[in-house]
Structure formats: C-alpha cells, structure tokens
Amino acid sequence: MFHFDGGLKLTAADLAIDFRRRQPRGFISHAHTDHMARHVLALCTPATAALYHLRCGVRQVMCLPYRQTIEWGGLRLTTFPAGHCLGSAMLLADDGETRLLYTGDFKLGPSATSETAELPQADVLVMESTFGDPKYRLPPREEVIGELIGIVRQTLERGQTPVIEAYSLGKAQEVTRILTDAGIVVLQHYEVHRVSEVYVELGMSLGNFLRLAAPLVPGKAVVVPPGRRHLPLPGVKRPVRIAVTGWAGDPSAKYRLGVDHAVPLSDHADYDDLFAAVEQVQPREVYCTHGPASFVDRLVDAGWKAFVLGRAARQTRLF
Ligand SMILES: [Zn+2]
C-alpha cells in the first residue's frame, strides 16, 4: 500500500506525502515549510491550501475538508484534524483491506488556534515522534499558559518589553491568542503578521494584535520568529527574550536558545501523548518518523510492532 522513496508514498495512488521536493501529486499535511513543495497538484485541507498559497504562490490544489471521504487513485482518503496548527491534518488512506493513518505533525488536547486532534483507528500507523524521549514529558497546558502570561506580565510591569520567539505559522498565532485573551496587546513581526491575516480570514480570531512598526509603543508584547534575535526594537531598553517551544522540556534549553526564559508550550505531542496516540489508533504496525530511534525500541518493549519508517521500508517490501 505504501513504500519509501526518499519519503512516504502511497503506492497505488502514486501520492507523495509531505515531500519537500516537487511531486506530480503531493499530500501536504500542514503548511510548515519542511512538509511541502511546489507540487503540480497538492492535496490538503482548505486552511492549509490558503497558507500554502501564501507561502508558495497560488497553485493547483484539491481540497480535502476534514472527515469528508473521497475516492482517489484506488483509495478512500479522509483527513482528520491533527491539532498542530490551523488546517493541519492526519490522512487516513483505505484501500479496502488496510487502513493506514499518517499523522503528520500532531498534538493531542486543546489548542488556542487549531482544531483538536482526532485519531481514527487504523491497521498501520505512520507517526511523527519528535518528542519520543521521556525527558519530553511536558507540564499540563494550563500550567504552561500561566507561566507564559506570568512572565509577560511581570516583564511589562518592570517597564521592559517581552519579546516572544515563536514560529511564524502556528505557534506565533497561538501565543498571540493566549496573550490577547489575557488582555495583553501583541505586536507581530511582519512574517508573523502576514500569516495571522490568513488565520483571521479563515475565521480564527486572534484578538487585539497589530503589525510591529517603529516606534515601539511600550506596554505591549512582541512576537517574532526565532532567528530574529537582533531585530532592532527602537525605544526598548532591554528586551526580555522568551522562547516558546516543546524543547524547553529540556532544562538546558534556555541557555542553548540564548533566551531569558524558555516556556514549554508545544505544538507536538509529548512523550506520553505519543504513546496515548498509539493506544488510541490500535495499529498492527507503527512506523515512526522524525523522532529518536530509541522511541521505536520503547514501543517494541511495550509490545507494539514498530519500525523506523525509512529503515524498515528500505529493508522490506511493504504491502
Ligand atoms: Zn509542523
């Protein structure tokens, strides 16, 4: 049903999944740049299509709204929310004998700005396992949100400017919504702002946010993409840098990232949620991508038939 050819491909439909290089037919699980390319025909959810057009220009797309099954290339294809960013989708492919679920990047539980993940049962599960190490057991979400708001408020009360570093698609909008819900006005770097405008067009309210422009008005939080550390912020004596990432589950993250605070707000499933996802899907076989190989060993130890995707697929003919 699938094979590995520099990435996951659904064999009968000749459908490349989340390829980073151009394909005749490519499924895009979400609009992060490491999951898409300028395909001849892209299959994705309507929200991902809007974000794909923003990032890659207007291109040919076949939209797959959540939970609406289509017959395509000998398969029944259905998308389900992945909880990672707006429009992010899992893909269920059914050839009549086998149900394969590809998770893409996913997160369980609520998010301020994306649909909550839904995991259907499947025979084969292909899952991302980014945080597949027990050191990435993240604190409860409410605690993390409280920590973020607390740091931002304390910084503002001291007359300093909180500068939150968050990926321009997904995390930045979630941080914005969390802060504006707490009554804090957010100024966004233009790379974040152009994505936020699409979120709003798609009906996702982000509250009171503005595009960052000089001179900076004090009393507001600033959201910038990571790597814009040296962005000039006129009028700011000393910005307080806050990274917002699941990697903050590692206590050394703050030093590695060179920030004042690292808050473990993640848009990926943490270690326990990865196991919870497998339990929920109840697959006969699990193929892992993106994570440590040791996570596969842990699944095997727990009684699952599990493989690293590329390695297993190269060694054996898959159905
Ligand atoms: Zn992603």
Strand content: 15-25%
Report the total helices. 8
Mean model confidence by pLDDT: 92
What is the CATH architecture annotation of the largest domain? 4-Layer Sandwich
Q: In CATH, what is the class of the largest domain? A: Alpha Beta
Low-confidence region ranges? 312-319
Bound molecules: zinc ion
Helices and strands in order, then pairings?
Blueprint: E1 2-4, E2 8-10, E3 15-17, E4 25-27, E5 41-44, H1 46-56, E6 61-63, E7 70-72, E8 75-81, E9 89-94, E10 99-102, E11 124-128, H2 141-157, E12 162-165, H3 171-181, E13 186-188, H4 190-201, E14 209-211, E15 221-224, E16 240-244, H5 253-257, E17 261-263, H6 271-281, E18 285-289, H7 293-301, E19 306-308, H8 309-315
Parallel strand pairs: 3-4, 4-5, 5-6, 10-11, 11-18, 12-15, 12-16, 13-14, 13-15, 16-17, 18-19
Antiparallel strand pairs: 1-2, 2-3, 7-8, 8-9, 9-10
Residues 30, 32, 84, 105 line the site of zinc ion (ZN).
Provide structural commentary.
With 319 residues, this protein is an alpha/beta fold. The radius of gyration is 20 Å and the shape is globular. The longest helix has 17 residues, at 141-157. Helix 1 (46-56) runs antiparallel to helix 4 (190-201). It has two domains: 2-135 and 268-315, Ribonuclease Z/Hydroxyacylglutathione hydrolase-like (Metallo-beta-lactamase, Chain A, 4-Layer Sandwich); 141-263, Rossmann fold (3-Layer(aba) Sandwich). It has eight helices and 19 strands. Helix content is 26%, strand content 23%. The strands form three sheets. Strands 7-8-9-10-11-18-19 form a seven-stranded mixed beta sheet. Strands 1-2-3-4-5-6 form a six-stranded mixed beta sheet. Residues 30, 32, 84, 105 line the site of zinc ion.
